[in-house]
Amino acid sequence: MSAVDKAFHGLRHMIATGRLGAGEKIPPEADLCEELGVSRGSLREAVRMLSALGVLEPRHGSGTYVSQLRPEDLIGSLSLTLQLLPLPGLLEVYEIRRVLEAHVAAQAAARATPETVGTLFSLIEAMEATEDPAEASDLDHRFHAEIARAAGNPTLASLLAVFRARSRKYQVFTLPEGPDLRRKSDADHRNLATAIAAHDPGAAAGVAEAHVAQTERWLRALEPPVEDEGA
């Protein structure tokens, strides 16, 4: 085990066992280096790694603190690795996404307020009106994010946002088949919003699962290139 790994796992153990609780300031560098048997450089690298994962929060002029360790924040850090998934790996994730999107759709149908329903239909109208694939993709993301928010579980909403962020890098709507695919997708969105507006969890879950499965089939069949972020 390298010195950086030793420092990383040592700090992680302190947090996991509750010795360092959420929101607490970590001990001074000198004390940690002595206890963990590592150099300041190795300790600082471990702190940077844990900060990237949302576990620690360096505060300028104050020190480094354990984050609030909210599940939704820690799950959000999965984007650091999931954003690297090639298409075959992403398609494996879709099996998980089908289940979770169906669940949050059912929960949203049970809990949706008139304001939520109004937001969903406004997003659908904007999606149907735009001819810009990038704007349509953004509106699509906001539509599904609103359903996840209405479901009432921030952790699930965060996890699904991570999954969707990688999915959006593979843009089927920019392909020659794009316009036809968008029309089918828009129709699914209307069916989903209608089921949520009717407070029908079973129907909402069924539409959501079918919608995600359909996107998976498109990705598998068309194998679109990943979006070039530098373009």
Automatic annotation (TrEMBL):
It comes from the Bacteria. Keywords: DNA-binding, Transcription, Transcription regulation. It holds the Pfam family FCD. InterPro entries: GntR_C, TF_FadR/GntR_C, Tscrpt_reg_HTH_GntR, WH-like_DNA-bd_sf, WH_DNA-bd_sf. Residues 1-69 form the HTH gntR-type domain. This is GntR family transcriptional regulator.
